[in-house]
Amino acid sequence: MTAIRLFLLLIKASLKSRMQYKFNFIFSTLMAACIQLSEFLMVALVMMRFGEIKGWSLYEVSYLYGVMMLAKAIYRTLASDVHHLEKYLVSGDLDAILIRPVPVLLALMTQNSRLLIAEIAQGLLLLVVSMRALLQSGQIGWSAIPYTVFIILTGAVILFAVGLATAAAGFWLTRIEALQNMTEDASQTAVRYPLSLYPKWLQGALLVVVPVAFVNYIPSLFILRHQGGAGMLLGTMGVAVAALWLAMRIWQIGLSRYQSTGS
């Protein structure tokens, strides 16, 4: 409980420091909103013209998109600089974090925290619109709401685990931007759409190597299409726990081998 209170206190302090520059905060939020909105609108316009994609309707794809957007927003809000570990390794700034009287990972997670208002608002909007339509059509019931909250939280854990494992690779590789483009950016973009769109080898990679398909696609098969039973949700939770454990192990091993820049 002490660690949790400390984490929340550091997050609050980091967010307050960000809010000192109000114009920059508002401008960056608006720009992020425009980028996210334009990305989804391109997909929506194509689907409105040609209909379903591999049997998935626009509302179902909106659901996948919204879950991923919210899970990613939670991860990036609560652990922003895990994604930016490379700059700490290259500049030597990680040395300053090592001497703080708090765990290194906790200190890193609370550096430069920012509340992703645009992503959270758009993710919620997509979920509200899509789930309202699916409820009205009878495709889902009211139980889909707590299930959705559950998979957003487990999805945030999975994304954090993937991000942490990728960042920890920096202790050996130092430069990890190209790796992050594959394990985080590209993979997360891919699973905003049904996994059935992709070839078998890519589906396997998104299920096993970088298990981001468990953020939204796999549990949505149960929530939206009633496939696989509740075991799909239990399996998703199991993947989240296993991925987090493995990522923490990789982080601990990598941190133990870190060599200071001497700066």
From TrEMBL:
Pfam families in the cross-refs: ABC2_membrane_6
Keywords: Membrane, Transmembrane, Transmembrane helix
Transmembrane segments: 25-46, 115-135, 147-173, 201-224, 231-251
Highest taxon of source: Bacteria
Protein name: ABC-2 family transporter protein
Phylogenetic placement of the source organism: Bacteria, Bacillati, Bacillota, Bacilli, Bacillales
